[in-house]
Amino acid sequence: MEILIDFPGGARVDAHIRDHIVQTDQPRSGGGTDSAPSPFELFLASIGTCAGIYVLGFCRQRNLPAEGIRILQRNHPNPNSGLIDRIELEIQVPPAFPKQYHSALIRSAELCKVKKTLENPPQFEIAVQETKAE
Question: Hey, which of 50, 59, 61, 72 would disulfide with 90, CB 3.0 to 4.6 Å?
């Protein structure tokens, strides 16, 4: 799987994934125009949205209503490094959601591929390649 990253102007950095463009920008305080989430915000959002896909899949497989279910993600940074030390995912369900499925929702969210990748981080290889002049 390849993702092409380009620089459309200002502090924007876009990712081209299949037929989609994921736009990022920096907040005004970081020199951007705040026209899109920052790359780090997108990274963090990928955790909650990935967990959400698994929660939604669980509900769909069992014909349980997903309406009214939300996930509140709290990111706790280390005050010294600024890196995230702890992430909380709170699955919020409406009162009518069957209580016997609460722990199963947690188990479903724990299957998130983004979470599993963070728990077993990949190796990074960064190189520079000159492109041919057009």
Answer: 72
Answer yes or no: are the C-beta atoms of 35 and 23 closer than 8 Å.
yes
- Give the pair of three-digit tokens for residue 87: 């992430």
Contact 116, 91 (CB under 8 A): no
User: What tens digit of pLDDT does each residue of 89-133 get?
Assistant: 999 999 999 999 999 999 999 999 999 999 999 999 999 999 988
Is residue 57 within 8 A of residue 108, CB to CB? The reply is: yes
Amino acid 126 reads I
What would the DSSP string read from start to end of 74-134?
Answer: EEEE-TTT-SEEEEEEEEE--TTS-GGGHHHHHHHHTT-HHHHHHHSPPP------PPPP-
User: Which residues make Cβ contacts (< 8 Å) with residue 93, sequence separation at least 6?
Assistant: 68, 69, 102, 105
| Helices and strands (H and E) in the chain: how many | 3, 5
Q: Determine the residue type at 95.
A: P
